[in-house]
Amino acid sequence: MTFQNTLQFAQQLDSQDELKEYRNEFIFPQHDNKNVIYFTGNSLGLQPKSAKTYVDEVMSDWANLAVEGHFYADKPWWDYHERFANPLSKIVGAKPSEVTVMNTLTVNLHLLMVSFYRPTKTRYKIICEEKAFPSDQYMFQSQVNSHGYKPEDAIVEIKRREGEHNIRLEDILAKIEEVGDELALVLFGGVNYYTGQVFDMKTITEAGHKQGAKVGFDLAHAAGNIKLELHDWNVDFAAWCSYKYMNSGPGNVSGCFVHEKHHNDSDLPRFAGWWGHNKERRFKMEPTFDPVHGADGWQISNLPILSLAPYLASVEMFAEVGMDKLITKRNQITSYLEFILHEIDKEVKGHFEILTPTNQEERACQLSVFLHGEGRPLFDYLMKNGVITDWREPNVIRLAPVPLYCSYEDMYNFGQILKKGILEN
């Protein structure tokens, strides 16, 4: 398609958008009595209008049924989480038994590392990406420390080549092979939070397994954003937060994946708790842990239903839309945003460097833009003029045109505000 940097063309794209009605299903912050241009769904998704209905339902059941809500609510609380299995399995490419919801993201990664990071005297190293999200870095450091290893010895970071913004797949594979028999775990982000680079999880998983290591992924920026096939890729485990692309609300519950090949492994250690115990015998209060078969067997405490409610509202919307339609629009609206940036770059005689790969297979819903010659005042200008975006030092803005609620007209209007901000600052 040949794009045009005009309002009429953007509105034409919106009129042809198969998902355009879903924009009305979300609540936008307001600026001058208009919807803001919202680019930070990679940090916190907008609130679905249906979320309040789902939360109010739980509050009503709590008021009217009290403890009996566990069994007699319209959506009984004791198996509330089971409603996520089918829709989440489609979002991440898994079998329903391989996914569950519980806790929050880093908590779940820690718990999964109990099972899948089992270092020995000779096999103890973890491979991860350079500039992973800080929480992952802290997790790696504390995990290896807990096993008596030094982070500088046990953690191997795959680095970008000098002068490059993204990590080459060939360098990842070479490092996995180099570490070889010392490698216990490969744990990467599915999408790098800073650059927006999408990693080839299938190939990385194959390479890690070839060396005898376990392979897992932090899918914080991937779940609800890219096509995932966790089961078919043979990934050992994964976890993701729900409040970014899946719009469940601030700090909300995390999703987990555990491949079915591990479900019957009684020798696999895990931290146990009541809610992971055999569902049919849970209320017999037995002293010996008998895990639920499947990913639910990694649950520990009973679930926070008030947190699950808005997540369920969003997950059911995803089930209605389907990932294929989301990805089709994601690709086009992200390409249109890229076009707008290049056009404005010409008009202001500036220099925007897009850090995110241009190859569609290596990017998703985020463009990270290095604003050469510009600084924090430009970001502040955008925020004051109704564009909510994300600033990362030294002068990078991250833009995520989420396909469920961003419009092509948003992309055009952003370009005009950006141009004005550069010319005025």
UniProtKB/TrEMBL annotation:
Keywords: Hydrolase, Pyridine nucleotide biosynthesis, Pyridoxal phosphate. Belongs to the kynureninase family. GO terms for molecular function: kynureninase activity; pyridoxal phosphate binding. Catalyzes the cleavage of L-kynurenine (L-Kyn) and L-3-hydroxykynurenine (L-3OHKyn) into anthranilic acid (AA) and 3-hydroxyanthranilic acid (3-OHAA), respectively. The lineage of its organism: Bacteria, Pseudomonadati, Bacteroidota, Flavobacteriia, Flavobacteriales. It catalyses: 3-hydroxy-L-kynurenine + H2O = 3-hydroxyanthranilate + L-alanine + H(+); L-kynurenine + H2O = anthranilate + L-alanine + H(+). GO terms for cellular component: cytoplasm. GO terms for biological process: anthranilate metabolic process; L-kynurenine catabolic process; L-tryptophan catabolic process to kynurenine; NAD+ biosynthetic process; quinolinate biosynthetic process. Residues 81-264 form the Aminotransferase class V domain. Its EC number is 3.7.1.3. Pyridoxal 5'-phosphate binds at residues 105-106, 133-136, 218, 221, 243, 274, 302. Homodimer. The keyword Transferase does not apply. The modification N6-(pyridoxal phosphate)lysine is found at residue 244. Signal peptide: none annotated. It comes from the Bacteria. Its cofactor is pyridoxal 5'-phosphate. Pathway: Amino-acid degradation; L-kynurenine degradation; L-alanine and anthranilate from L-kynurenine: step 1/1; Cofactor biosynthesis; NAD(+) biosynthesis; quinolinate from L-kynurenine: step 2/3. It comes from Flavobacterium swingsii. This is Kynureninase.
